Amino acid sequence: MIEVRPLTYFISAYEEGSITAAASRCFIAQPSVTHAIKTLEISLGVKLFERSKRGIKPTADGHKLYKLASDLLLQNQQLEAAFIPSNVHELNLYVQPDINIERYANILELDEQLLPPQFKFKGLNQEGYKLIVHKDHPLAKNKTVGLNELQGLAFIERPYCTNRKAFERLISDENISITYQGKAIHDFQLQGLVKLGFGVAVIPESYIQKECDLKYIPIVLNNPIMRSIVLAYRKLPKSVVAVIEGTSLI
Fold first, then answer.
1. Helix, strand, or coil (residue 169)
2. In percent, how much of the chain has pLDDT > 70?
3. Taking Cα atoms as reference points, which of 195, 161, 197 lies closest to residue 181?
4. Residue 172 parent element (H or E)
5. What Rg, from alpha-carbon coordinates, does the chain have?
6. Cα separation, 218 vs 132, whole angstroms
7. How large is the greatest C-alpha to C-alpha distance in the chain, in angstroms?
């Protein structure tokens, strides 16, 4: 028996004409879409797409499955609608890994810069960045810090940051040299490495904690680097969209 989920991924790939776009649309990793399509091809004994550098193109069997799968999913939605109250909707949510979920308890968050063009979004918040240092660091007593004061500092790398290239380009333009002493995989680990004295780091304001061993210092820039936190959505029922668009900023 063919499961519904692989058919959903197949339909997304068919409509988008791209595995990558289908993965973004479904909020999953690209290999999951590829695996789902391959599983369908093996189960049905047919080839569903022709692949090229330009993307994917449905075969005759792909077109045939699309019509049947679309009808099946529509019937499945109608079946659920017959038993689920009309004011209840199930949503699949994706939360960007470097977002501090604890600060936004009941809202999906995503950095606007990562949004595929087919998504709509509602702005929730904007935040800047601060330099985080150990309390015994020479800069810990500063109320602010300028770019020139970053010269020669050992940093903990934050590779998942969407504004990383903008920050590195900024210090490069000012001929400032920094080194990376370590690498973090999330922001709580980042603060732990700073606390242990491995280096300093730049961190979003939403991760600031009441931590006596750490100091968070505003960075003075002519054009502050900011990031936008948004609620992203596409192809949702009108009643759900109305709720989204009525969400208040935090």
1. helix
2. 77
3. 197
4. helix 164-173
5. 23
6. 9
7. 69
Average pLDDT across the chain, whole number: 82
Instruction: With H, G, I as helix, E, B as strand and everything else as coil, classify residue 17.
Output: coil
State the amino acid at position 49 in one-letter form: F
pLDDT, one tens digit per residue, over 83-117 is 766 555 555 555 556 666 555 544 444 454 555 55
Contacts 24+ apart (CB under 8 A), 136-142: 136/197, 137/200, 137/215, 139/200, 139/215, 139/217, 140/215, 140/217, 142/217
Answer yes or no: pTM beyond 0.70: no
Range name among 139-148, 204-213, 231-240 with the lowest pLDDT average = 231-240
List, in sequence order, every residue forming a beta bridge with 134; answer none if it has no partner: 214
SS3 30: helix
Burial string for 22-45 (b: 16+ CB within 10 Å, else e) reads: bbbbbebeeebbbebbeebbeeee
Give the burial class of 96: count Cβ atoms within 10 A of its Cβ; 0-12 exposed, 13-18 middle, 19 or more buried: middle
Alpha-carbon dihedral 196, 202, 205, 209, rounded to 10 degrees: 0
Check residue 59 and report its DSSP letter.
Answer: -
CA 137 from chain centre, in angstroms, equals 33
Residue 95 confidence (pLDDT): 57
| SS3 label, residue 179 | strand
The size of the chain, in residues, is 250
Per the listing, tokens 């995503």 go with 110
Beta-bridge partner residues of 206: none
Helix (H) or strand (E) holding 65: helix 60-81
